[in-house]
Design a protein that fits this description.
The protein is an alpha+beta fold. The chain is built from 2 helices and 5 strands. The longest helix has 8 residues, at 36-43.
């Protein structure tokens, strides 16, 4: 389960926060994410400047990042 990151665009917000190709996004604010629709729903009330905690799996290890939305 989760959303597999296939590409991170240089200079993007994801790139600036250390997201890497191959990471798997598994949660936003401790809510499991299994597909794009769920991710969009979780972020629908957020605005630029808000911070969210996201959990990725990278090479079998959980990586927790705090991202500021742009």
């Amino acid at each position: 389960p989760g959303i597999y990151v296939t590409e991170v665009i240089a200079g993007s917000n994801a790139c600036k926060h250390g997201v890497l190709p191959g990471d798997i996004l598994v949660a936003v604010e401790d809510t499991p994410v299994s597909d794009i629709a769920t991710l969009q729903q979780l972020l629908s009330d957020c605005e630029p400047g808000d911070t969210v905690t996201v959990t990725f799996v990278r090479r079998g290890q959980d990586i927790v990042l705090t991202l500021t939305l742009e």
